[in-house]
Amino acid sequence: MRLENQIALITGAGRGIGRAIAEHYGREGARVVVADLTLESAQEAVDAIEKAGGTAMALAMDVTDEAAVDEGVATIVKTWGGLDIAVANAGIQHIDPLHKLAYADWRRVMNVHLDGAFLVTRAALKQMYVGGGGTMLYMGSVHSLEASPLKAPYVAAKHGMLGLCRAVAKEGAEHGVRSNIICPGFVRTPLVDKQIPEQAKELGLSEEDVISKVMLKNTVDGKFTTLEDVSEMAVHLAAFPSAALTGQSIVVSHGWHMQ
Ligand code: NAD
């Protein structure tokens, strides 16, 4: 087990990529905090982790709510005595061309990804600095490194998360904190399922063509990145033993993006 004795917080972990990471961390021996918008949305993942023999707790944490994030981390420390790994994963998508993009939609996407990642980072670092170190992980995207049309706020926010990750690597080093960002290609989750018909409408393509000619066009094998691909990388980065790996963006995209 690669994460024994580790206490891990994962935001947006009720479903999708966050849930896959939470379950994988549970199998690797970590005590897992499944945080999501409501307790109900987090509970199913907690049940799955416990059924597999792991230890988990559900936490209601809207990452855009400063008090909820601070109180959530305080609850973890009070309940389990510390925090070793924090994964800023919560995210949303919005599809629109820039010239039609409402300011409210721009702000909503930036708020969840970038403000949320900052609030989780600040609360986690305060604890990690007194606890002797830890690991910050960010769920970036290939869109942390390149752009696609119709996703301007998402692309800007994901680029911003890369900057935050690097800043944490610089500041956190002397406190034993490592910071890395995982940049997946398309993973079949509710977030992606929702945007297939939206992109088909905007681009005038069939849904099959959105998948093959837009989403998977530049992969080496025409395949979606899997939940397992991403959660395995999240385990690897959390378990990595030194600051040789810090401030890095790790692309998990079936060759869509090569850096
Ligand atoms: P998803 O929609 O399946 O899950 C997102 C989760 O985040 C949900 O459980 C939702 O309730 C939660 N969430 C949303 N807003 C929140 C908030 N304000 N506070 C707390 N939780 C909130 O999405 P996913 O595909 O699993 O995406 C997870 C992360 O991975 C996101 O940051 C996304 O940008 C990133 N990502 C996804 C893909 C992909 O192809 N699916 C690719 C690259 C990066």
Automatic annotation (TrEMBL):
In terms of superkingdom, the source organism counts as Bacteria
Any one Gene Ontology BP term? monocarboxylic acid metabolic process
Q: Which InterPro entries match?
A: NAD(P)-bd_dom_sf, Sc_DH/Rdtase_CS, SDR, SDR_fam
Instruction: Please give the PANTHER family that the UniProt record associates with this protein.
Output: 3-OXOACYL-(ACYL-CARRIER-PROTEIN) REDUCTASE (PTHR42879), 3-OXOACYL-[ACYL-CARRIER-PROTEIN] REDUCTASE FABG (PTHR42879:SF2)
| Recorded family membership | Belongs to the short-chain dehydrogenases/reductases (SDR) family.
List the protein's name: 3-hydroxybutyrate dehydrogenase
Organism in which the protein naturally occurs: Marinobacter antarcticus
Q: What is the lineage of its organism?
A: Bacteria, Pseudomonadati, Pseudomonadota, Gammaproteobacteria, Pseudomonadales
